[in-house]
Design goal:
By secondary structure, the chain is α/β, with parallel strands linked by helices. It contains 15 helices and 15 strands.
């Protein structure tokens, strides 16, 4: 057939003349190679585009990025500039495409203005610091937008409940950004456990080397001048004051940074300091939820899923000292452990899940060969009656011990479908009713709540165990602990 142009009437006439049944030609075929029909393209807005949001945006360059919302476009531009070439200086097609899309997108500093003014947005990616996730996601869903929210889904247990309810009410497509949930290895873990290769599991150990950002430090502030008669002693309090003094300074926010919008829902009026933005915000209690909130979504995710854990019934936590005043800490501890107890589920026994961060490691199980070192960056060990299953962060490299158990993996049937795209594109396809979202809020909210209950237990006090009624979202034995399930909001920024 020649490549002559056809009018719509000619096309209908000539295709109708074919001596075949009905003929359906997909729109992308008519457009030629590389063409993507408008119906296959999602109009996306990115909120928080300087850090992880930039990576999310790059994963979505086959879609239509119509808006960028950020409180610091200087940071966005610096992040974007490095995307065009690889480390060898060669062009990166996806990075160049990203630069093109971002260059054309509308720009906003305030997500509320964006949602009010730009009506062509279909999906919103939210990659701000943790403290703003829920407020933005809830507003976007109520505006009828599909949402992709970076982990952790929320800052508080209550916010996780609200987002789950709003997602159910609005019917939009949701996804949390725990990308390991979409990988093949994550599904292997489920299949091996369901096949009983290590027997019933009653104990799990989860660890990470995070934090890799400042924690256990005071807020920047000039200390009170020491008394003239006696020099300060070098005790811990004096060292904390010296640390605060070393960080003190009259810093002005960089030109273009909307610090008021960065604070967003934070109730306290915190002065700008470069120790908060960018990246280092995660360890500050105002903005992040520490290593447990950060990496729990990548590590607790897999046992939570594979063992169908649901809500824990008790949680206790211990740690190194918090940073700042004991009554109102400002940074999370350098290291902590959390012990969760989950009840039996059907034929599965109760499970005790142990979390370690700050470089702390679990005890080595006896089934491990002596020459095999635990991965310092992080991992998970499931202890069953027949052996153990161990994997790295994101569910990577699952393996069974004793090693002879691995021979049985070849006969385990594939019971879970695989996802062949990125986590972001899986969400985009789900928004277009072409796929099912891998980590929707229906799953991600209870996972996030479980993670954050570790912070609730730690705030309750060391050496104490909280008993939790997940159905009622209530700590039953220590009433004052319930204040840590919620948070205080700046006026006008609540859910």
């Amino acid at each position: 057939m020649s490549r002559r142009r056809l009018t719509r009437r000619q096309f209908v006439s000539e295709t109708s003349a074919l001596a075949m049944g009905g003929m359906v030609v997909k729109r992308h075929v008519l457009g030629g190679p590389g063409y993507q029909a408008p119906s296959d393209t999602l109009n996306v807005a990115i909120v928080g585009a300087g850090g992880m949001g930039m990576s999310n945006a790059e994963a979505l360059v086959t879609q239509n990025i119509v808006a960028i919302c950020d409180v610091d476009f200087g940071y966005v531009e610096r992040s974007l500039a490095g995307r065009g070439k690889d480390r060898d200086g060669k062009p990166r097609p996806e990075g160049l495409r990203l630069q093109e899309l971002v260059g054309k997108a509308a720009r906003y500093a305030d997500f509320r203005e964006m949602l009010d003014k730009q009506k062509d947005i279909e999906g919103v990616v939210i990659a701000t610091p943790d403290h703003a996730h829920a407020v933005i996601a809830n507003a976007a869903m109520l505006a009828g937008k599909h949402v992709y929210v970076q982990k952790p889904l929320t800052y508080s247990v209550h916010e996780a409940r609200v987002l789950r309810a709003t997602a159910q009410k609005t019917g939009v497509v949701t996804q949390m950004g725990n990308q390991g949930h979409a990988r093949d290895d994550a599904r292997l873990i489920n299949e091996w456990i369901q096949a009983g290769l290590i027997g019933p599991v009653s104990e799990v150990h989860v660890w990470t080397n995070r934090p890799i950002w400042p924690q256990g430090i005071p807020r920047p502030a000039a200390p009170a001048p020491p008394a003239a008669a006696a020099p300060p002693s070098w005790n811990q309090r004096a060292i904390n004051e010296a640390t605060a003094a070393a960080m003190a300074g009259n810093y002005s926010a960089p030109e273009g940074l909307r610090w008021d919008l960065y604070l967003g829902p934070v109730a306290e009026d915190i002065p700008y300091h470069p120790v908060y933005h960018p990246f280092n915000w995660r360890g500050w209690t105002d903005f992040g939820v520490g290593a447990l909130g950060d990496m729990g979504a990548h590590l607790i995710d897999h046992p939570f899923w594979a063992l169908n854990l649901g809500y824990p019934t008790s949680i206790e936590a211990t740690s190194t000292p918090w940073g700042g005043p004991r009554a109102k800490p400002v940074t999370y501890p350098l290291a902590m452990t959390v012990h969760y107890e989950f009840p039996a589920r059907g034929t599965m026994p109760p499970v005790r899940l142990n979390w370690y961060d700050g470089g702390l490691m679990p005890p080595r199980p006896p089934q491990l060969p002596d020459d095999l070192a635990l991965n310092r960056e992080g991992g998970v060990i499931y202890v069953g009656t027949k052996g153990i299953l161990m994997h790295e962060t994101y569910g990577a490299k699952p393996a069974l011990f004793p090693a002879e158990l691995m021979q049985h993996t070849a006969s385990v049937p594939q019971t879970m479908s695989r996802i062949t795209t990125s986590h972001e594109l899986n969400w985009a396809a789900a928004c277009k009713k072409q796929a099912t979202a891998s980590s929707p809020f229906e799953y991600a909210a209870p996972l996030t709540e479980t993670m954050l209950l570790g912070i609730v237990a730690l705030r309750t006090g060391q050496g104490r165990k909280i008993l939790y009624d997940g159905e009622k979202m209530t700590v039953t034995n220590i009433p004052e602990s319930n204040q840590y399930l919620t948070r205080e909001y700046r006026p006008g920024w609540g859910l």
